[in-house]
């Protein structure tokens, strides 16, 4: 008994050290960013703040006009900027009421409050993710690992709303695995904060478990109606216009070379390729991914953790617009692997529970190494696909006879 107890204490100490170290690193990075005017005003949050400030005036249709955003951003920066330097707000209108409330404060305090709001969303998402694991004995450790997941912190540091994306995906996964089609569909509706990802995850349900699709459609329609009521027809036209500009990949700090998807990989590996050619190839990959996922859904007897994990990984790779902060969705296939190994008794629960924390440290280390920052996410994604589809082969070294 003593050696086993020593191993448990050693593992617990190591986990605690890993979580504490992440907390310290994140706190230091946050203080560094928020205390530096150039860094905090250079974060993506400036676009959210500008949208909130415009909303406060009641001129919701102007939220998606770059010139209106430019005026607010210049006020935050304290100096004029060119049209190409504007950080545009390209997110769906249904989050504008929250942004308007936050924009009542000065920029720095609004950034703090927005970070707290995002953290709360991550808390809720973590609760539903943990519920997907049938017998999670180490809930506290798993909860902390999800909240401290590196892409989650990266999104907060930039003021991005990836927390809402993860919350929707977590509700979707929990509803899917617990056979609650309504919850799964409503969760997918929340992922429309990234419409291109939402479509890849939702459309395959036309071919299996169609109730999920109808609930998604109902939830998405409700959000769309609320958005149109908020910004009006003119605002909707402005929104679609700014989306088309974003999809074109030109200007407005889109930075395709920093994307962690097929398009980003193509631009980095072949910098001489014409941008238009690269984008056309990316949209072809997107279409192929959608067709492939529909085929997988149609041929599957049921939709479970294997299909859900695959869909998210394919969506991350094939989405035509995806930056590092949206890698928070990697938590979905990580938990799918945990569910799968638990159901098939391939790993001890306490070993599988280390996956989120281990993934965080892998991404933290690689993020500070230029040679690995963009390659590790692709390699890790491929490993997750293998773990989901050939788990007996991947985990054969850990499988113990009953």
How would you portray this structure in words?
- The chain has 402 residues and is mostly helical.
- 70% of the residues lie in helices and 0% in strands.
- It has one domain (2-394).
- It is built from 20 helices and no strands.
- Helix 14 packs antiparallel against helix 15 (305-318).
- The chain is globular.
- The model has no long low-confidence stretch (mean pLDDT 91).
Keywords:
402 residues; 20 helices; globular
Return the structural class. Answer: mainly alpha
Query: What's the total helix number?
Result: 20
Question: What's the end-to-end separation, in Å?
Answer: 20 Å
SSE order in H/E notation?
A: HHHHHHHHHHHHHHHHHHHH
Major beta-sheet overview: none
Shape: globular
Q: Helix coverage percent of residues? A: over 70%
């Amino acid at each position: 008994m003593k050696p086993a107890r020593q191993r448990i204490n050693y593992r617990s100490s190591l986990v605690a050290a890993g979580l504490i170290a992440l907390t310290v690193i994140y706190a230091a990075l946050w203080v560094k960013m928020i205390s530096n005017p150039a860094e905090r005003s250079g974060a993506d949050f400036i676009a959210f703040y500008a949208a909130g400030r415009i909303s406060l005036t009641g001129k919701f249709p102007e939220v998606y006009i770059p010139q209106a955003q430019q005026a607010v951003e210049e006020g935050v920066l304290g100096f004029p900027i060119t049209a190409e330097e504007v950080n545009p707000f390209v997110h769906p209108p249904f989050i504008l009421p929250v942004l308007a409330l936050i924009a009542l404060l000065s920029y720095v305090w609004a950034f703090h409050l927005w970070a707290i709001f995002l953290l709360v969303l991550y808390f809720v998402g973590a609760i539903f993710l943990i519920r997907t694991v049938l017998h999670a004995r180490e809930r506290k450790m798993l909860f902390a690992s999800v909240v401290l997941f590196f892409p989650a912190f990266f999104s907060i540091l930039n003021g991005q709303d990836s927390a809402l994306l993860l919350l929707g995906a977590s509700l979707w996964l929990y509803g899917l695995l617990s056979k609650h089609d309504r919850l799964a569909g409503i969760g997918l509706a929340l992922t429309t904060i990234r419409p291109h990802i939402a479509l890849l995850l939702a459309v395959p349900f036309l071919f299996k478990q169609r109730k999920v699709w109808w609930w998604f459609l109902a939830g998405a329609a409700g959000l769309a109606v609320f958005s149109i009521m908020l910004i009006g027809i003119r605002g909707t036209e402005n929104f679609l216009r700014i989306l088309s500009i974003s999809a074109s990949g030109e200007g407005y700090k889109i930075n395709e070379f920093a994307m962690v998807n097929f398009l980003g990989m193509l631009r980095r590996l072949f910098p001489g390729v014409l941008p238009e050619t690269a984008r056309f190839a990316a949209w072809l990959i997107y279409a192929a991914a959608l067709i492939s996922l529909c085929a997988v859904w149609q041929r599957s007897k049921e939709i479970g953790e294997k299909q859900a994990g695959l869909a998210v990984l394919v969506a991350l790779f094939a989405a035509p617009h995806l930056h590092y902060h949206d890698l928070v969705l990697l938590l979905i296939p990580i938990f799918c692997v945990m569910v799968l190994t638990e159901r098939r008794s391939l790993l001890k629960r306490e070993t599988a529970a280390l996956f989120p924390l281990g993934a965080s440290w892998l991404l933290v280390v690689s993020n500070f190494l230029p040679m690995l920052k963009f390659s590790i996410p692709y390699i890790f994604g491929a490993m997750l696909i293998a773990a989901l589809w050939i788990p007996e082969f991947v985990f054969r070294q850990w499988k113990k006879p009953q």
